[in-house]
Amino acid sequence: MIVIENVYVVPVTGAEIPSGYIAIDGDRIVAVGAGAYEGEGERVDGRGCLATPGFVNTHHHLYQWASQGVTPDGTLFEWLVASYRLWGRMDAEVVHGAATAGLGWLAKSGCTTASDHHYIFPKGRGDLFDAEIQAAREVGLRFHPGRGSMDRGRSQGGLPPDEVVESMDDILSATEAAVRKYHDPSFGSMLRIAVAPCSPFSVSGQLMLESADLARSMGVRLHTHGAETLDEDEHCKEQFGMLPVQYLESLGWLGPDVWLAHCVHLTDDDIRRFAATGTGTAHCPSSNGRLGAGIARVSELMRAGAPVGLGVDGAASSEMTPLAGEIRMAMLLQRARYGPDALTARQALEMATMGGARCLGRADEIGSLEAGKLADVALWRVDGFYAAIDDPVVAFAYGQTPPLARLIVGGKTVVEDGELRTVSDQVAAEAGAVAHRRLLGN
Ligand SMILES: [Zn+2]
């Protein structure tokens, strides 16, 4: 039993508690309240701290830690074309090292549940999917890797070179095998698999249809990229005679079991369809800015009732992006587009927690601090310099993210005083640097 006490609690789903406690037994929260907790337990003094639910990262490509900074400018399509050949050289060691660093970095910015979207599987280079799962076990985060795929190379009108795509049969059998081997649907699961073909411009319509059938027959979720850039709009109009969201809907890819990365360029009708079908959006504001994609209409999606979570996206298009910082980025960019009442700090915090939990289908387990939910908790130091601001949520969200005093995943401490306690900072950083050198061949 662990009791965090004297802490400012932001449960996200209920009223804030200026001085209260969170009691944790095993991997669950057993009580949250004001004042002192009467029961036994190891005490953690939360004085000067803000307690939030652990953050949920809804979109990433962990392998990209190894190719950060390699293509620092350009549009999405220019950046992808420059990156595909390099990514085609990765092996299981690169993926393990990149994932260790990427997941460690996420943990250090308050993330307790991470999804990943891995869609390149060069032949004869080891078990890449298993490599990232091992890394997540070592770092200690709840993990939702998507078995990604691409089957539409350049000769078929797609964007990637033919040598980095797989055949549809290989993809479907490997995806089914990954779900059977790893997916744990139980309450409190540390590992769930999604089916995740890459994007309209690298995947055939047939693979999208078959992937949706496979995921639904196995009871797992669906993830892909959608409506990220105007180039993608043009590609879809040219190749399929419709815009990306219409195309996805025609293939059965809107629904409560689907979450889509980016969704920057949505029509009013798309927003209504997302809300009506419960389709989730993984909002990645830094990546969208970095690639000049645009500012997504996420405050409109939230107002319409559609699930919206936050994501850092792959590190090669969003270098060193901390998940906690995306709360600020989302808030500021929505205000830059729509005005100062577009997104409050508390709404952006909700996006990072309950919004992400809804996208991953785990709203009953994570995303808020409530008795019965999993003990995924972040403690932020809002004393020191931050004590100049009375509202601790404003202190947390408006400027540089305050220090992370502790990160707890399922009752276990993963970060303490800003440093990883599962693998060390030094091990995670070195793993990422070695993966980078190995991928670049020097
Ligand atoms: Zn992405």
Automatic annotation (TrEMBL):
<dbReference type="InterPro" id="IPR032466">
    <property type="entry name" value="Metal_Hydrolase"/>
</dbReference>
<dbReference type="Pfam" id="PF01979">
    <property type="entry name" value="Amidohydro_1"/>
</dbReference>
<dbReference type="GO" id="GO:0016810">
    <property type="term" value="F:hydrolase activity, acting on carbon-nitrogen (but not peptide) bonds"/>
</dbReference>
<dbReference type="InterPro" id="IPR011059">
    <property type="entry name" value="Metal-dep_hydrolase_composite"/>
</dbReference>
<protein>
    <submittedName>
        <fullName>8-oxoguanine deaminase</fullName>
    </submittedName>
</protein>
<dbReference type="InterPro" id="IPR050287">
    <property type="entry name" value="MTA/SAH_deaminase"/>
</dbReference>
<dbReference type="InterPro" id="IPR006680">
    <property type="entry name" value="Amidohydro-rel"/>
</dbReference>
<keyword id="KW-0378">Hydrolase</keyword>
<feature type="domain" description="Amidohydrolase-related">
    <location>
        <begin position="51"/>
        <end position="413"/>
    </location>
</feature>
